[in-house]
Write a structure and sequence with these properties.
Blueprint (H helix, E strand, L loop, with lengths): L4 H15 L35 E2 L4 E2 L2 E3 L4 E4 L7 H9 L2 E6 L3 H6 L9 E4 L9 H11 L1 H8 L3 H15 L1 H16 L3 E5 L6 H13 L3 H28 L10 H4 L3 H15 L2 H8 L4 H11 E3 L10
Parallel strand pairs: 4-7, 5-6, 5-7
Antiparallel strand pairs: 1-4, 2-3, 3-8
Helix pairs in contact: 1-4, 1-9, 6-11, 7-13, 8-9, 11-12
Length: 313
C-alpha cells in the first residue's frame, strides 16, 4: 500500500503533530536591560487562524505575581499563516521567532514570517532516529506493524522515553538554554514553536514557567491545553488516514498526537535523577546562571499577589 498524494500532506501533519521530535544546542547569554514593547493583541486575545495551538503564556501565576502578557508566545508551526495571522504577529510586538524544528521539518513546511521579525533556528531532534521517517514508514507498513510498534501501551512509553531523552541529551539542553537566554535579552515579544507546539514547545514553556515560579498545577494545565487546541486537527488527520486504509486502530496514534501529564512528569523526574534537583537541572543542565535567571524574572513577572512557588528544589 502506498501513501496517496492526498494523504501525504496529512502525514506531514501527523509526524509533525506526533512527537514534535528530538536534539538541540546551547550557549550562555549576556545581559543588558531591555526595553519592552507592549502592543495588542496579547493575552487571551492572541489567536492565529492557521496555528490552533498558538497562545500567549502570560496571565498564569509566577513568584509574587503573574507572568506578563505580550512578551512570550508559544505556537505550533507557522507555515500556513494567513495575511491576518501575520498581521497579528506584528501587532503583538513579536520581534523574534525561535524554531525548534528539525531541518527536514523546516524544509517541508517553511514558516511564513512577516518582514521585520527575525528567526532563530534551534533544532531539537535526533538525527539518528528521524521521527518523520519512522512514523511515515510505520503508517505505510500498515495496521499490523502499527499494532506491533505502538500497541499495549508502547506509544505512550515511547513518548515518556522521548521526554527523558530530551532532558539527558546535551545538545537538546543547550538549545533550550539558548532559547531562554534569548527570551531574557530580546527587546519585544519572543515566540517559540515546533511543529505541533506540544512536546518541544511544551517542555520549553514548562522550563520557563518553573524559572518564573509558576505553580505546578498551572504548568501542567498550560501543557495539557494542547489537547484541546489540537483536537480538531488531530481528528481530521486520523479520519483521513483511516479513510485511506492506512490506519485501522486510531487509538494507537492518539498518545503520540496528544500529550499526557506523565510525559512532562517523566521529563522533570529525569531532571532530578540526572542532576539532583530541578533547580540544578536549570542551572547546570540548561546553563541558566543567576544573572539570566534574574533577567527572566525581572522582565516577565508582573508583581502583585500571593507567591505560591513552583517545583521544589
Amino acid at each position: 500500500m502506498t501513501i496517496t498524494r492526498a494523504v501525504r500532506g496529512t502525514l506531514t501533519g501527523v509526524a509533525a503533530a506526533l512527537i514534535t521530535v528530538f536534539p538541540i544546542a546551547m550557549t550562555p547569554a549576556s545581559a543588558a536591560p531591555i526595553a519592552i514593547l507592549h502592543q495588542a493583541p496579547v493575552g487571551a486575545d492572541f489567536k492565529l487562524q492557521a496555528a490552533p495551538n498558538a497562545r500567549d503564556i502570560g496571565g498564569v501565576g509566577a513568584q509574587n505575581g503573574k507572568i506578563k502578557s505580550g512578551l512570550v508566545f508559544r505556537t505550533d508551526a507557522l507555515n500556513r499563516l494567513t495575511d491576518a495571522d501575520q498581521s497579528t504577529l506584528t501587532a503583538a510586538g513579536i520581534t523574534k521567532i525561535i524554531d525548534f524544528r528539525s531541518p527536514a521539518e523546516r524544509a517541508a513546511s517553511p514558516d511564513k514570517v512577516p518582514p521585520g521579525i527575525s528567526t532563530m533556528t534551534l533544532p531539537i531532534y535526533n538525527p539518528d532516529q528521524d521521527f518523520y521517517a519512522y512514523i511515515g514508514g510505520l503508517i505505510q507498513a500498515g495496521p499490523d506493524a502499527q499494532q506491533a510498534a505502538l500497541g499495549d501501551g508502547k506509544a505512550a512509553q515511547y513518548m515518556r522515553d522521548y521526554y527523558k531523552w530530551v532532558v539527558n541529551d546535551p545538545t537538546s539542553r543547550a538549545q533550550f538554554g539558548t532559547a531562554l537566554k534569548e527570551i531574557a535579552t530580546t527587546s519585544g515579544g519572543v515566540l517559540f514553536h515546533c511543529t505541533a507546539g506540544k512536546d518541544r514547545t511544551g517542555m520549553m514553556a514548562a522550563f520557563l514557567m518553573t524559572i518564573l515560579g509558576t505553580p505546578q498545577d498551572q504548568i501542567f494545565g498550560n501543557f495539557l491545553l494542547s489537547n484541546d487546541r489540537l483536537a480538531g486537527s488531530n481528528k481530521a488527520t486520523l479520519d483521513a488516514l483511516v479513510a485511506q486504509g492506512l490506519v485501522k486502530d486510531r487509538t494507537l496514534l492518539e498518545p503520540v498526537l496528544g500529550v499526557q501529564k506523565d510525559y512532562l512528569e517523566a521529563a522533570f523526574s529525569q531532571a532530578v535523577a540526572s542532576f539532583g534537583s530541578v533547580n540544578d537541572f536549570i542551572s547546570k543542565g540548561l546553563g541558566i546562571d543567576a544573572q539570566t535567571y534574574k533577567l527572566l524574572q525581572d522582565k516577565l513577572i508582573e508583581k502583585g499577589g500571593v507567591s505560591t512557588g513552583s517545583f521544589g528544589s
